[in-house]
Design brief:
- By secondary structure, this protein is α/β, with parallel strands linked by helices.
- It has two domains: 133 residues, Alpha-Beta Complex (Aspartate Aminotransferase, domain 1); 255 residues, Aspartate Aminotransferase, domain 2 (3-Layer(aba) Sandwich).
- The protein has 15 helices and 17 strands.
- The strands form five sheets. The protein has a seven-stranded mixed beta sheet, with helices on both faces.
- Helix 3 crosses helix 11 and helix 13 packs across helix 15.
- The two termini are 38 Å apart.
Amino acid sequence: MNIDQIKKEFPIFDEKIKNNDLVYLDSANSSQKPKVVVDRINEFYTKQFSNVGRSVHYLAVAATNLYENTRTSVQKYINAKHKNEIVFTKGATEALNLVANTLGQSHLKEGDEVLITELEHHSNYVPWHFLRKSKNIKINFAEINEYGEITLEEIEKKITSKTKLISITHLSNVTGAILPLKEITQLAHSKGIIVVVDGCQGAPHLKLDMQDLDCDFYAISCHKMYGPTGLGVLYGKKKWLEELPPYQGGGGMINEVKKDRISYGELPNKYEAGTMATAQVIAFDQSIKFLESIGIENVMKHEADLVEYGQELLQKNNSVKLIGNPKNKGGVLSFTIKGVHPHDIATILDEDGVAIRAGHHCCQILHDKLNIPASARASVGVYNTKEDLDQLNESINNCKKIFNL
């Protein structure tokens, strides 16, 4: 990979941050956007704009075709069996809420159990909590081990005769642990259990093959995949999407509306009510093409090299404590510095143009388990280099000097 050439595709890196070159280490939060994505949004709004799936004039038909082209691109990128297994949402959060809401209506009843993990982002816990309140289901938690991982054995141990659904992250946004998703799905399906996956961190950084993973649902956040904000993708097996009820009612998701009855549209229209984020969907096609031009295997190798290098640097840095050391790890380096609040770390690093995340990363349950209020997190993307991690380490040392560490 020619990282210098890749970096030139991102206009943000031409900007100075407090008179410093930008060292962007917050891609787990949201990735930066290549120029082709930004330009595609502008081109659509200025030359091609129309609503989709409604009118029959030239612009409307052309926009609809472009919109559906992206659906085909997503299908191929994640190797879904059917194009209509791809549903566009306003984000991964909505995708997970869609699954929880519709399964809650039709398949979960009082006393049923949902198994999640201590690694989960709030987006993959709160929707199930709503069902705990409204339908009196029970939520069980698979616990992390000393390395910040969730093992297959731990999942198996927490399954009971009442477990109806497992909802898990593919890649932790705090410890970086990559879960054995295929093996978990095989175990779950052998017991008739539905598998829902929060793929927010998995989709940008791992090779996806829905037919191989065989999970029932997989939620994707497009703004973490070098794509636009306000857009997500829900992959759902065709059998489930056909069986489950609609999530929202309105235009676009209906077949026939009468005073005494309503019938719903075919997939995936049934789940795409109202005016969709047309420009974002069309631009996301460029995000996929961008990743394909690099090759996901190359992305994975590059990020693995960066994480290994960053771990070695920070492990040698006195006072810095890395959070988690999973055997199979994605591009996340979360850490604390003894005696320094993570918000102070992030503020001081920002003075050097180093952008990291500080807080609980929407994972309060995990931070409670670790007995820390917050952590600092550096996360990598295709545009990062070992020099970026050198600057991270140097800025951490500047932080330590300020606090006399």
